[in-house]
Amino acid sequence: MRTRFMVIALVLACGASARAGGGPGAPTGDADAAFARLKTLVGDWRSEANDERLSYELVAGGTALVERETGANRPAMVTLYHRDGDRLVLTHYCMAGNQPRMQAQSYSAATGELRFEFVDATNMATPAAGHMHSLAMRFVDGDHIETEWQFFQDGRATMTERARYTRAPQGGR
Q1: Rounded average pLDDT over 77-92
Q2: Structural domains of the chain ordered from first start
């Protein structure tokens, strides 16, 4: 009887810990800070290496951030960032025709690094189908950001897309 009581207590404690955000893959405890930092991106950005552009806009009363990505010779894409309870999540509307959803796994205000990892996707024919799987974003300073998107196919990384963006002057695109 005593052993059964201890096992039940252990299971309940583990469940409470998981709901509180403990354990691997848990929601970042810094979701509020990370989302506040993302909100500072509002405006227009230009890639330093090519003609890619990002624009950020707050919508839904400031509860969601829309990122629009445009570039020469490629369809426009949209990424939507928002809170979901104690998590910070994104949905990427990709030119691959699917919509991967990712959850923030870590954020460091000191280094400016924010990392998202794949949770699931809509409109993906099979789990092996090509899709964006992770995003690492670094806030270099108030006028520069770096992004690194990783594309997976057949269960492995097949492409990494890195870019550095500079904030565009107000009123200019």
Answers
A1: 97
A2: 27-167 (2.40.128.20)
